[in-house]
């Protein structure tokens, strides 16, 4: 029997498993997760990574029966997570820096959509103090986003970076995790049975797994909604645990990172070595700014802070060395200069009284102080800003006070003097 071309296709006559496959193809096809090793351009950090691919929601508008089937498949497969934050938290910056895929950042679209399986709200216990710069105001704007549950680990890792950007972030932020809000948002008359079954204790654990395995050191956590009471309490306790508690392991990890970077440097893999050092430096910044730090200092032996301070200072000096070398290439001079200057300023700041703990001041060797001043001078000269010649000269003369007669320092002084003469 041949079918007429004018005969409508009877979609609902297809077996349920075929219809579900169609729903998944139309409503659950998103881009693959971004490769974390892909180099990121500075301008890309100002925008969210889109999770969209070929999503077609037209099938949701066919009829009520198809809508219910398709909606169930869409929600249970994609497992959307609503993320909101208040003004003053750098959530935008944190998610963009790790390329966390976002389904939509359109607030009105997110608010209209009621099919999220988790809702995560980040509040701030301390009052918001607006930054004077437009950039910092932008990254601290409130966020209302929709992400996929598959990307919750990226979200959690981004939030764990908060202490590296905002002092005492983990101590001041409040995180409210609401499980199963889709059950509260079902349209009137809709049978909730299938969704209630979906939020079994087993699935609750799966949904919360990234949060409970990655988030640490946040002291104000609330897990509520359609969640087992004992599970909610366990998740709260796990997230409140200090992320860092073993001083000797911390020292061993960062000493290993320092040596790994040096090995890569010797192998002339300068970029990879620098990345290892940068990650280590950021992690030390996070530890010092985290809620774990006071307990670490209190319970560690007297060598912990001096040894960590020494590692940090040398790692920052090493980063500056790599970036100053990159500044020799005009194509890299601007971005490498920014990173070199940041590394040198961080190293200098770490020498301040009470920076690491009250009553302590890290005092490097004269050789390392000479390197700090020498690299400051070279960085300033390569940046070539008019009017900064005297600053470069002061740094190089200070380096010579620490290391009189050092050939490299003397050569750099000649370079700076030639720069001054060209400008006169």
Number of domains: 2
H/E element string? HEHEHEHEHEHHHEHHHEHHHHHHHHH
Mean pLDDT: 89
List how many beta strands DSSP finds. Answer: 7
- Dominant shape: elongated
| Order of the strands making up the biggest sheet | 5-2-4-6-7
Largest β-sheet summary: 5 strands, mixed
| Helical content band | 55-70%
Give me the Rg, rounded. 27 Å
Low-confidence stretches: none
Strand content range: 5-15%
Q: What distance separates the N and C termini?
A: 96 Å
Number of helices: 20
* Helix and strand composition category: alpha/beta
Give the topology, please.
Blueprint: H1 16-27, E1 49-50, H2 64-78, E2 80-85, H3 91-97, E3 101-102, H4 107-112, E4 116-124, H5 134-139, E5 143-148, H6 152-160, H7 162-165, H8 169-172, E6 173-179, H9 181-184, H10 193-198, H11 201-214, E7 221-225, H12 229-240, H13 247-266, H14 270-289, H15 293-299, H16 304-326, H17 333-349, H18 366-383, H19 389-402, H20 407-423
Parallel strand pairs: 1-3, 2-4, 6-7
Antiparallel strand pairs: 2-5, 4-6
